Amino acid sequence: MKTIAVAGTFDTKGAEFFYIKGLVEELGMKAFMIHTGVFAPAFEPDVSNKEIAAAAGYDIDAIVARKDRATATEALSKGMEKLIPRLYAQGKFDGIISCGGSGGTSLVTPAMRALPIGVPKVMVSTMASGNVSQYVGTSDIIMMPSIVDVAGLNKISKTIFRNAVLAVAGMAGLKEQLKPDTAEAKPLIAATMFGVTTPCVDQAKAYLEENGYEVLVFHATGTGGKTMEALIDAGFFSGVLDLTTTEWCDEVVGGVLAAGPTRCEAAIRNKIPQVVSVGALDMVNFGPWDTVPKEFAQRNLYKHNPTVTLMRTSKEENIAIGKRLAEKWNQAATDMEVLLPLKGVSMIDAAGQPFDGPEERAALYETLKKGITNPHVKIVEMDNNINDKDFAITAAKKLLALMK
């Protein structure tokens, strides 16, 4: 019998979670009830809030006695993040579902993120129709809008809860009915791509796949870079082709697609062979044209599409980006290669194109050549645009050599 973990605040939303419990059982599955609320639950759970808090080293009773709700919520969130993966590893459940507002969502989603990719995870939330990146992170949580507040049972909420239970139950219960994937498992390579570096990565990907590897491409939009780094840390990859490091433009200058200050660390930390480059370091990303900050109004702007406006990085910005990349790559403890395309870092950083910038490229490259002092890091300059076939195939061949 499949088991669905139902996690939530059984003190303030007891009726809602008891209803969800009934739906799970009606489908012939077991409901594994986890109480994440601060106070006494409306019904007996399988896992108490005391157990959850204790997993993070807290005494929930002592916190409640002080009427310290903020600390209690923090304790429960940290405890869930530690306890839920442990319970899953013990075979206690096959999928997990929860529901709530911003508080309940913040309480349970860190624990969902801590579960392996592929474990069914459904969060019914009042926050699901907005920006959910803070809840989902780099995981595969399914965020379902609750439509109405999670505050009582009514025609709308019951419909949403039923669909959510069917979703998680279907994922957990029907997987055995799918034919197993019999394709030969190949070693995985991570690659980063942007629209303006697509020809390069496509050609490198084809070459690597011809040589027996499977290439997973990550769109360098902030979330893509973060996801790749997380999967490198999780041990998925044999090699990394990080040719599109454009997220550093947004991190340094203030665009909308930054991947955070730890980008470019995971492969080095895990000693994974990698070939890297400077793909799309000619551009900072903003939203529609009228959302570009006023201080950039006179800069070289390019309307990529109605929802994305690109800004050409300046010499000073390229120097700052180069310093950050040199700092990251200098941490390498194993051999890696940095490929510099002398004729442009993107489709539109090429002769006759709107972001063609020989001076900006020179500033970036000189910064990297002066800043990289680690003997493990080899810099290779190539008389190509990044999208030229020779550049792409060279990058793939160098990665294959490093992996051998």
Polypeptide structure, described:
By secondary structure, the chain is of the alpha/beta class. The chain has two domains: 3-177, 3-Layer(aba) Sandwich (Rossmann fold); 188-403, Rossmann fold (3-Layer(aba) Sandwich), CATH 3.40.50.12030. 40% of the residues lie in helices and 18% in strands. It has helices at 14-26, 49-55, 60-65, 69-89, 102-113, 133-136, 155-173, 198-210, 223-233, 247-253, 266-269, 315-329, 358-371, 389-403; strands at 3-8, 30-35, 95-100, 121-125, 142-145, 188-193, 214-219, 239-242, 274-277, 283-286, 301-305, 308-312, 336-341, 377-382. Strands 7-6-8-9-13-14 form a six-stranded parallel β-sheet, with helices on both faces. A five-stranded parallel β-sheet has the order 2-1-3-4-5, with helices on both faces. Helix 5 links the parallel strand 3 (95-100) and strand 4 (121-125). Helix 4 runs parallel beside helix 5 (102-113) and helix 8 packs across helix 14. The radius of gyration is 25 Å and the shape is elongated. It holds the Pfam family UPF0261. Residues 2-175, 186-403 form the UPF0261 domain.
A few lines on this structure:
The chain has 14 helices and 14 strands. By secondary structure, the protein is α/β, with parallel strands linked by helices. Strand 3, helix 5 and strand 4 form a beta-alpha-beta unit.
